Amino acid sequence: MDKLPLDLPEFQAGWVWLVGGGPGDAGLLTLYALHALRSADVLIYDALVGDDVLKLAREGCVLEYAGKRGGKPSSKQADISQRLIQLAREGKRVLRLKGGDPFVFGRGGEEALALVAGNIPFRVVPGISSGIGGLAYAGIPVTHRDCNSAVTFLTGHNASGIVPDNINWAGLAQGSPVIVIYMAIKHLGDIAQKLMINGRSADEPVGIVSRASTPAQQVLETTLGTCVEDVARSGIEPPALVVVGEVVRLRSGLDWMGAIDGRVLTSDPLNIKDQSDKVVSA
Ligand code: SAH
């Protein structure tokens, strides 16, 4: 890597770096992630890490796939952890690269704890989670002062592949104006139903963002009541994020990627110009 006026920690032999690779666009990697890619002996990566990121690995770095995607061959979590320990014990610089942030629905904690049990030194490098950075690429902010002062990150399925049952759906529906759901497409109907039963309106805006920040990014704007049919009709596919809440309407003002392709943005996507004057002077 080019010399920077910044001291990056040495990636020492026998260490594991657990690194977030961001949502897809290689430009969203952190300096630490890039440094790790330029130094590692072995890179163990997930399905969500794209080719552009892998290409940044140092020449001679061995790439090992440890992806886990529904329907496709997968490596068991325990096997991945054992592999990390084995390689570190062989004295390798082991880069464990995960999509987004390793500690956001990424099982980074589990892998790190296995390293603790194996007495392997490790460093954690956070990444831009798709639920924040991926949505920003669709022009959807996860908070906006006029819409919400709280946001919830939710997983659409638990370790057994079903909608988590340890969620207080009434509390969530009534308490969180914006809900960002990872791994939600499969159970979208069930989740939308649970939110509506607990008080959310069928008209509430929903955004669905597939392959965010990659050239294949697709965005669907829909509502809680119609999202299942709209997803089926659009053919939009996982990996995708689902965001429920008024912030989705900001997209008509903040779709900066669309603007690059000529979309004309509105400066008042929520139609609140008069009111916002009052809020400011209040
Ligand atoms: N640790 C990751 C999340 C892993 S869980 C992170 O912080 O982003 C896997 C889920 O993440 C996918 O099912 C999808 O919901 C979401 N995801 C990850 N990358 C994505 C992308 N580029 N576009 C859309 N969704 C993405």
From TrEMBL:
InterPro entries: 4pyrrol_Mease, 4pyrrol_Methylase_sf, 4pyrrole_Mease_sub1, 4pyrrole_Mease_sub2, CobA/CysG_C, Siro_Cobalamin_biosynth, Uropor_MeTrfase_CS
Pathway(s) the chain acts in: Porphyrin-containing compound metabolism; siroheme biosynthesis; precorrin-2 from uroporphyrinogen III: step 1/1
CDD domains for this protein: SUMT
Keyword DNA-binding applies: no
Sorted UniProt keywords: Methyltransferase, Porphyrin biosynthesis, S-adenosyl-L-methionine, Transferase
Gene3D superfamilies (UniProt xref): Cobalt-precorrin-4 Transmethylase, Domain 1, Methyltransferase, Cobalt-precorrin-4 Transmethylase, Domain 2
Protein family: Belongs to the precorrin methyltransferase family.
Protein name, entry field: uroporphyrinogen-III C-methyltransferase
